[in-house]
Q: What sequence folds into this?
């Protein structure tokens, strides 16, 4: 069948315009300076997943232990001691006494400060564990949605190819197509079946990964259609420095500084005051005995200065680490904004580049093939290109979803985005 060059070019131009799919119409938002938010069902599913996940229990119990240690650190350093004694000899003696070491060096206050600082370190660890869980859960959810969408596209394409293969069989019987063209259609059908099975397997793997991450694929819609894509957020240094990593580094530094003070206080000798009383029986007379003693340890063989120096070295190291962490977090925030902005622009261009459903494009291709304006090989190639384009669009949206997550997390707005409450006693499962 002969096709004029002009007609072939016109058909190709028409197909080029109609090939570019617009996926998920209405899913991407226009410019929006606000933060946006996750859909309510995703928020509820995420919060429920964290509440029942073993990682939440581990982090919560570690925080509870830190709270107990903080309370213990605020208790008095020394307890009183009592003693009783009796001796039968030429002179019988009976004594009772009590002693108490006095904390005049400020050890209790210093240890209480260490406990309070270490409690804040534990809170930062809890926030970090919860943040990491949110990232894993949302990444798995987005990956599940992307894989499911790609599998659905492949299944729709398989249905179209199977219909075309059946049509080619009928066309062969009436002599409208050659055996070679029929064989090409059958080969394309088998290729589409393999691709559909592969993408279905990838979707199953994504659902399994979500279950491993603590999510339930059946508890929330996999397509994430309610996620909005506003403009990149302004980098707020205060929000970045409130990230769990920054809080952890800062509180570790404060705890180390408190341990320096505590180690220095431990070098101060605390006196022990003892009071005792009793009686002495000589056989002829009984005399009362009262005594007071004061003892002070002498740090002459070990003045514990090395412990102070070691604690100070740790504090200096952790203070320097704060600056490293701050630089890394600010760089990550800026990088996330750039990546998110680039993908957002690409997604908007994608949406604006064309329109039309896959079935409609397939019907157009089929009409052109029936009219003899497309060969069977051209039809199959162009249909395959349409499929690849649709799959690429789904992947692009998946990348944008992951970039949205990274951007919200890196700029310190993840909890606000997901609706997680601030880390406190009430928010611990």
A:
């Amino acid at each position: 069948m002969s096709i004029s060059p002009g007609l072939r070019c016109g058909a190709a131009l028409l197909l080029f315009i109609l090939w570019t799919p617009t996926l998920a119409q209405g899913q991407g938002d226009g410019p929006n300076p606000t933060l946006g938010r996750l859909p309510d069902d995703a928020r509820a599913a995420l919060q429920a997943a964290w509440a029942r996940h073993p990682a939440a229990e581990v982090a919560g119990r570690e925080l509870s232990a830190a709270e107990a240690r903080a309370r213990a650190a605020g208790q008095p350093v020394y307890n009183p001691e009592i003693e009783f004694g009796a001796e039968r000899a030429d002179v019988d003696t009976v004594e009772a006494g009590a002693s108490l070491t006095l904390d005049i060096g400020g050890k209790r206050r210093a240890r209480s400060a260490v406990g309070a600082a270490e409690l804040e370190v534990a809170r930062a660890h809890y926030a970090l564990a919860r943040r990491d869980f949110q990232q894993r859960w949302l990444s798995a959810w987005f990956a599940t949605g992307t894989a499911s969408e790609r599998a659905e596209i492949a299944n729709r394409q398989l249905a179209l190819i199977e219909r075309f293969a059946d049509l080619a069989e009928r066309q062969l019987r009436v002599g409208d197509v050659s055996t070679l063209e029929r064989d090409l259609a059958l080969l394309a059908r088998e290729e589409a079946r393999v691709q559909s099975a592969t993408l279905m397997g990838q979707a199953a793997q994504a659902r399994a990964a979500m279950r491993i991450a603590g999510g339930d694929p059946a508890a929330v819609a996999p397509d994430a259609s309610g996620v909005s894509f506003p403009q990149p957020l302004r980098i707020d240094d205060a929000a970045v420095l409130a990230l769990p990593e920054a809080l952890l580094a800062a509180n570790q530094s404060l705890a180390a500084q408190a341990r320096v003070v505590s180690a220095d206080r431990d070098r101060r000798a605390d006196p022990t005051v003892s009071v005792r009383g009793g009686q002495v029986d000589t056989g002829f007379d009984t005399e009362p005995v009262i005594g007071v003693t004061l003892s002070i340890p002498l740090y002459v063989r070990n003045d514990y200065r090395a412990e102070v120096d070691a604690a100070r070295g740790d504090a200096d190291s952790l203070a320097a680490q704060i600056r490293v962490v701050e630089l890394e977090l600010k760089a990550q925030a800026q990088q996330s904004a750039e990546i998110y902005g680039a993908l957002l622009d690409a997604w908007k261009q994608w949406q604006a580049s064309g329109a039309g459903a896959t079935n409609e494009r397939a019907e157009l291709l089929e009409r052109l093939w029936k009219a003899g304006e497309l060969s069977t090989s051209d039809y199959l190639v162009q249909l395959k290109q349409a499929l690849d384009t649709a799959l690429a669009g789904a992947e692009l949206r998946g990348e944008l979803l992951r970039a949205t997550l990274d951007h919200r997390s890196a700029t310190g707005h993840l909890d606000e985005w997901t609706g997680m409450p601030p880390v406190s006693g009430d928010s611990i499962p």
